[in-house]
Amino acid sequence: MTNTQKKIKRSFDIVFSIIALLFLGFIIIILIITSRIIFKESGIFKQTRIGFGGRSFIIYKIKSISTKSTSKKIVSQYSTFIRYTKLDEIPQFYNVLIGDMSIVGPRPDIKGFADELKGEDSIILTVKPGITGPASIHFKNEEQLLLNQNNSNHYNLNVVWPKKVEINKIYIREYSFFKDLYYIFKTIF
Question: Could you state, in order of their start, the residue ranges of all structural domains in the chain?
Fold first, then answer.
């Protein structure tokens, strides 16, 4: 990615995230309050993820899982809904605004995945992680896919993760702003 492409991408990220936060801010507040009521704890989920250059950062999401709640049916329905619709991801526009993430790019992973990349695979760490991207779209039903496996950890490590790495390497090598617009469009619709 050239310096000009990086500047255009970052400018787009700032404008897009400001607009998204302005339009979706009310929904974020409602979801935070709803999660707080349902889970009886903070409505925001924070987790350390690996980002640009292998550095860690805090990702923000709407809380969708807890063990403290009393009504399992309501929790299950709510969790399924916000995770399926990806509403739990909306606070990540804040991560984009402050520069930890981009709108489009490889998804940020927990320690033990992206920070372990070696050789040509480490190209993934040369771009900011994204809210969406080609690997996210390819594995849009990843949770269900893993649930259908006898050994989900083995399948994730040996099938899903290597495929994500390959898809993300192609995305970075063939980067185009217009492809980013395509991935955004494909994610929304």
Answer: 3-188
